[in-house]
């Protein structure tokens, strides 16, 4: 916690907020923040998000508030959210609602940073879920320790879940065990059990190895993304950000070219772009024989002379 906060170069009396569910991970985070932040001249508070999807959620939120206040965190606020399952699943809907609520709280309270209690085991589970999706390096790169865009940090991402639970027990910090963590209806719970079984089958350290894989994948994807942005600048026509030179794209490394195509599709307004769709766009560059314009997730991509033109439908 100290290393992360020192690395942010925050001004004196800047406010950081712990996202606290009341579980062992977030209570260990709350205790560490309450201890370290004042010693660095920072203020520390907490945000409790009440999803209202479990019976007794209001009571759990109230208990978490009291426990955070007892640790010395101030302010402590509860964000009430409505979770609407729009088709992506209850887990995804709850996650989206949670991040929106945390962002609102950060802006309302003028906080510089939101701290999340994700741990090494969470990271391993995220990698396995990404492998199941098969969506490339980004899908297995896990959760970054610092998400600068959303002003979110995960200082405990390299620490095992069991260590955080023991930290609470050692300090006498009370916490709540979420019954949904045992509910097989949720994909992350099923994956969690698989990780536990793999630890038994392959030996201790499997979760840590998956977390290291996530870090390596993140670094590689980050580099490719930077090179893709440079290629996009080189290939774009003057004053036409969504028009790229096929001649420039053709000379690029395939990994960088494909990442550039993905980025420009997203920039044009595509909602979701698969690898197969990226390859179809790439064929307009490498195997041009008069193909019709492509319709991809809300955008159209066509080749006009020696250019790719991306347009929102």
Describe this structure in words.
There is one protein chain. This protein is elongated. Helix 2 packs across helix 7, helix 5 packs across helix 9 and helix 11 packs across helix 12 (275-286). 33% of the residues are buried. Helices cover 53% and strands 15% of the residues. The model has no long low-confidence stretch (mean pLDDT 90). The N and C termini lie far apart (46 Å). It has helices at residues 2-7, 24-39, 57-71, 90-109, 120-133, 137-140, 161-171, 187-202, 206-235, 246-251, 254-268, 275-286; strands spanning 15-19, 43-50, 76-80, 113-115, 146-147, 152-153, 236-237, 240-245, 294-296, 299-304, 307-312. It has 313 residues and is of the alpha/beta class. It has a 6-stranded mixed beta sheet, sandwiched between helices. It folds into 2 domains: 2-214, HUPs (Rossmann fold, 3-Layer(aba) Sandwich); 238-312, Uridine Diphospho-n-acetylenolpyruvylglucosamine Reductase, domain 3 (2-Layer Sandwich).
């Amino acid at each position: 916690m100290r290393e992360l906060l020192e690395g942010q170069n925050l001004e004196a009396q800047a406010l950081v907020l712990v996202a606290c569910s009341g579980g062992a991970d977030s209570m260990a985070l709350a205790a560490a923040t309450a201890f370290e932040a004042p010693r660095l001249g920072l203020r520390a508070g907490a945000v409790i998000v009440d999803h209202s999807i479990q019976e007794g959620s209001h009571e759990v939120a109230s208990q978490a508030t009291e426990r955070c206040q007892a640790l010395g965190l101030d302010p402590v606020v509860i964000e009430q959210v409505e979770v609407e399952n729009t088709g992506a699943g209850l887990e995804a809907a709850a996650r989206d609602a949670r991040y929106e609520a945390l962002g609102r709280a950060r802006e309302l309270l003028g906080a510089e940073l939101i701290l999340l209690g994700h741990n090494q085991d969470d990271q391993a589970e995220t990698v396995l879920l990404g492998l199941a999706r098969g969506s490339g390096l980004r899908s297995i790169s896990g959760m970054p320790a610092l998400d600068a865009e959303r002003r979110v940090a995960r200082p405990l991402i390299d620490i095992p879940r069991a260590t955080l639970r023991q930290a609470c027990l050692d300090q006498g910090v009370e916490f709540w065990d979420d019954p949904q963590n045992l509910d097989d209806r949720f994909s992350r719970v099923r994956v969690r059990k698989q990780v536990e079984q793999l630890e038994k089958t392959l030996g201790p350290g499997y979760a840590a190895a998956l977390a290291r894989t996530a870090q390596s994948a993140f670094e590689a994807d980050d580099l490719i993304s930077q090179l893709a942005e440079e290629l996009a600048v080189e290939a774009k026509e003057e004053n036409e950000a969504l028009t790229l030179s096929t001649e420039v794209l053709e000379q690029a490394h395939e990994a960088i070219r494909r990442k550039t195509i993905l980025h420009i599709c997203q920039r044009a307004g595509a909602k979701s772009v698969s690898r197969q769709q990226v390859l179809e766009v790439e064929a307009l560059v490498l195997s041009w024989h008069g193909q019709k314009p492509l319709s991809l997730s809300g955008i159209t991509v066509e080749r006009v002379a020696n250019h790719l033109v991306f347009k929102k439908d």
